Each structure stands twice: as structure tokens, then as C-alpha cells.
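Researcher: Quick one. two chains, 412 residues in total.
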Amino acid sequence: MENKPKSSNTVWHHATVTRQRRAELNSHQSVLLWFTGLSGAGKSTLAHALEERLYQMGYHTFVLDGDNVRHGLSGDLGFSNEDRVENIRRINELAKLFVEAGVIVLTAFISPFRSDRDKGRSLVGEDFIEVYCKCSVTTCEQRDVKGLYRRARAGEIKDFTGISSPYEPPLHPELSIDSDNDSIDQCVEQILQYLIQRGIYKPKQQ
Amino acid sequence: MENKPKSSNTVWHHATVTRQRRAELNSHQSVLLWFTGLSGAGKSTLAHALEERLYQMGYHTFVLDGDNVRHGLSGDLGFSNEDRVENIRRINELAKLFVEAGVIVLTAFISPFRSDRDKGRSLVGEDFIEVYCKCSVTTCEQRDVKGLYRRARAGEIKDFTGISSPYEPPLHPELSIDSDNDSIDQCVEQILQYLIQRGIYKPKQQ
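Model:
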């Protein structure tokens, strides 16, 4: 049968499973919650706490953070400015695919540069929700869960955001979280209230 | 409150929403179906046809192919051997994240080199299912949906798999599809039968 083309193999319409149909299957829309803030500001902790709440309501979520991106997709990248930019570019593209797949994506990266976050906003559009985890360097340094601030102060880590490298706070974030003063539960509640307003999160009737 | 660390922010256990819990939410396991074969062998067509069937049964799927990867995440890469290897590396990492997120991933890339596909197998483990779309160069060239074979023969495209660059067929693929002779429906059925055997796909009782 090699001498005649199988036209039946070529006329199939691609990608019939659209984002909208996935939303119907999941019973919820997909968005990108982009957490940004200093190391120790609670981005990853908050993202996972929020994910747990969303899961309990039957939402489909995924957290992208240093643990699953820096050791994998971006395993070839270091921490030079150029590599940081490329890392955030890849995360933006990755997040866009997850949103397309119907998943509520929560990204937890310092993402210190405004221009990089803005690229994510351009890429994903109105479904990009910037969540600024506002926390003073003092508090982050006191927490210093991973001992990174101590090492940065000792000069063992170069270009450390907040110490020897700039952090550019969002100018108009959709959400600004006071992770200096509010508890995790309060922060999660604030984000959920926003998602309710946006019509994304719908608490079950008791 | 800046002068005392919020220890409550640091003790939260990360990633409570595991792959297993996602499987419970979705009522199905996640796997990676890695389609490989020549350009025109029907990888993308088959992946989308299979996705449609799975969607209709309530399965959570996503197709990664040239359309959504080459223009996005791998937009910085060309077609040199080095760039092809990096492209497939990224797709492997990407697919791993989707599998972790509970999604049945279908990747549709020529992926001509055995070593690259084997890396995906190492990365994803037993949930890596290699689907060889076996189709002769003659048939693919006759179809030539995108006019690429014509351009490759004219020397306009260098290193074109099957013409001027090698394709290394899988040695022990989980599935070998005769896309030279079988219809799309037959191919989809063959894959579904395999997924039933593996306990991943469960046809609804009528």
C-alpha cells in the first residue's frame, strides 16, 4: 500500500481538545498565579498552602518552584543575570502550557526583574495574576530558612537578591500579600477571596 | 513585627498534593506516551485523535508537539544536532512535570535519536511508553503534508530526518504502530487496548 498516500491520515483536525473543553471537564477555569518576592518571603510555602485548599475543593493545580524546575528543565542554567532571564522565560512558557492544559498554575520564584514578569503577563494575557509577597529583607534574613542570607552576607553567594542584587517590586500587582505580618492562613484567605471575585474559585455550599 | 521571625511561615510541609492524590482526584493514573517516527508518519495526528477519545472518557491529557513547544519553550533552538538534543531534553523535563501533575502526556516529535528517547525513559521511569509510528520514507514523502520532503530533496532543508539525517528506530518500543497501512481509528484502538492492559484506560460500561 506504499504507493498511494493515506490521505485519511492527513485531514484530521488537530487539537480538538481546547482549553475551553478542559475547563468544562474540570469545572473551573485555569489561571497563572505568579508569586514574586524575596527569598524567604514565603512564596513557595504560600503556593503549596493555597494548592492544598484548592485541591480539597477539587481544583486541578500545579506548583512550579525551584525544587522541580531548577533541578530539571533549568538544570543547565546558573544564576548570572542572563541565566536568570532565560530561567524565567522558560518558566513563563512552561506556565503557559499548563494554563492551556486547564491547570491552575502557581509559580514560586524570586523573579526579581519587572521586565521578566511583564513578559509572562504578555504571554499569558489576562490570566496572569501577579502575587507580590511583600516582606522586608530584615524579616527574610531573620527567618533565613536555608541559611542563604548568612552565606550571602559572608560573600559566599554572589548576586543575592535583596543583598547584592536588586529586587524590583511589582508596580501594579493583582495581589499584594503582607507576608511580613499576616499568617499563612490569612494570606491564603486573601488570595481565595480574590479568586472568588474573579469567578475562578467557587466555595462549595455547606 | 519585623523583629521576630514568623516561624509559622517556615514549618509548613511542602507539596502535600502528591501525584497519588491527583490520581485520586482525576480517577486515572498519569503516563507519558512518547510518539516517535518520521515527519509525516502521523504522530501528531494520532496523538490528537487519541486525546479526543480520552477526553470523551473524562481523562486529563495534553499533547506536546512542534506547534506548542518549538514556538515557545524551544523558540531559541534551531535544528543542529546539539539543539535537537537540547530540545528533546527540555521536552522530557516538561513531560515529567505534566506526569507529576497527573496528566496523561502525549508527545509528538520525530525524536530521531535513541539515546534522547532513552533519557526520557530514565527520567520518567516505568510510566514512559514509547509509541513507534512505523511508516516508510516512501509513504511519508508521498504524503508530504507540509512540503518538507520536497524542500529537503531540493537541498533547501539540511539534516532532514530520513533524507539527509538518520532516524534510529526504537529497539523495544512498548507499542509499534503500522501507520503505513492502518487507519487512524485502528491505530488509536491499538493504543487504547494497550492502555486497558496497563490498567490506565477503563472503558465505561454501557
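Chain B touches chain A through 61 residues (CB under 8 Å).
Researcher: Thanks, that's what I needed.
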